[in-house]
Amino acid sequence: MQKVTIVNMTETYTVKGLMKKLEEYGIPSRSVNYAAKHFESFLNDTSTFILMVDDAAAEVIDYVDDNREVFTAPDIHVLLVGTKADLKAFDNYMSLCDGWEFVERPIDIASIIEKVRTRLDLVNMESEKPCVLIIDDDPTYCNMVRDWIKRKYRVRIANSGAYAIAWLASNHADCILLDFEMPITSGPLMLQMLRSEAATASIPTLFLTGKADQKSIMQVVDLKPDDYLLKSIKKDDLLEKLKQHIGR
């Protein structure tokens, strides 16, 4: 089940009270210090991050900036708990990230519980849809494709091969849309890795790339991608391709 991850400088009575109340509603939670490393490991089972600022906005911003990939992931819900001054300090995140909400201190635990439950209800509704994993380091293009297909599919985005592999270790995708050119782990190398693992070998994997030259296409023929699509594809054509490979 998806958890609530509360991130704080110190585990205060307020945090303990919030965790107890979440438990009463059957919502598992964890308390994590801002100094914790590898925040990306919490992405797999976290539906909501609650950031407790506690008069340390500058330090909290440093931690959030260091883990920007986590706190700006498209499907992550973040509750920023602080003062109006803290809200101003986090203006870039609040204005640019759809999943961020502000809760003013002193906190109303009932209000936070309601926000968390609303989010979990949405997550549960989404879980009934087939999942499409987009592996691409171009956030603008990823978000466009996500908007195209999100009505019909649950969409997850990985901006690197490493994050995709970590996500797939504990999650399932019904189809993968894979870019060709990416730093460190290229599309062809990523497909080779997917095909070599029993858990991912049978997932329909479609290249979705701007590489239209014959050399690039021939480079992946032996890896047997399920399709090779260009980024110039139209919305309706992409939806039709996904339907063909997912079955719905």
Features:
alpha/beta; Rossmann fold; 5-stranded parallel β-sheet; 10 strands; 42% helix
Describe the structure.
- The strands form 2 sheets. A 5-stranded parallel beta sheet has the order 2-1-3-4-5. A 5-stranded parallel beta sheet has the order 7-6-8-9-10, with helices on both faces.
- Helix content is 42%, strand content 21%.
- It contains 11 helices and 10 strands.
- The longest helix has 18 residues.
- The relative contact order is 0.10.
- The two termini are 26 Å apart.
- The model has no long low-confidence stretch (mean pLDDT 88).
- It folds into 2 domains: 123 residues, Response regulator (Rossmann fold, 3-Layer(aba) Sandwich); 118 residues, 3-Layer(aba) Sandwich (Rossmann fold), CATH 3.40.50.2300.
- Helix 7 links the parallel strand 6 and strand 7.
- With 248 residues, it is of the alpha/beta class.
